[in-house]
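Standup notes
- DV: blocked on the single-chain target, sequence here:
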Amino acid sequence: MYKLISWNIDSINAALTSDSARALMSRDVLNTIKAEDADIIAIQETKLSVTGPTERHLQLLKDYFPKHAVEWVSSTPPAKKGYAGTMILYKEGINIKKILPSIGAPDTMDREGRLLVAECDQFYLVNVYTPNSGDGLKRLKERQIWDRLYADYLVKLDGEKPVIACGDFNVAHKEIDLAHPESNHMSAGFTDEEREGFSNLLNRGFVDTFRYIHGDVKDVYSWWGQRIKTSKINNSGWRIDYFLVSERIKDNVKKSEMIDSGPRQDHTPILLEIDI
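- DV (later): unblocked, structure below
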């Protein structure tokens, strides 16, 4: 049995070293994750420099997760500095081979540290921070290309061994996956094009584990916008963070759910337990 957690942290440095009220809430979330004693923790939007975590970052992470080793990938030129980035923490003793794939994505997407793959003995774990289409949907066309190439890549891996894909997919798949679908059909993360891209991914042999376990349960989200101070109080959220698995291992999933992040807005961690 494996327990996995995925979380868009929105800056590891801020979460670990800042004294802001938000950072203190982030550290509360880290303590919650620590208590889960997960085998693998996938983190998105690390926002680290090209050289990755500093010695101080690594020591602070070790204070939370003393049993875990760390793999990471950061944004590299010509992509923006301190942008995107992903990380995997895994219990020492788990045999992992780190893979940094290049899927042929447009613009600088392949250089933004958005994909970090851990090849384990029984499966591939794919940690993804999917590109956001941006204000004014300025990156929507590139995002559509990314979605196709990402699906191709997962299918390729799935031909070798089962896949667990997790992270911030930056799309609410169906109207049930956000609080106010009626006013967001032209918003990044809920356009017809992005939703179709996610449907196409699932149709190629992958399962949204949360929906597989919970069916059409309503009002359960993984992200609440920070710009509106009452978004979490009012549960005006979106479900844009997922654990997907290869179709053939869907019945191995024992649990797929959100982890309570308290008053902190933005992303909440998600959890998967799978017998594989």
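- Follow-up: The CA atoms of residues 103 and 149 lie 6 Å apart.
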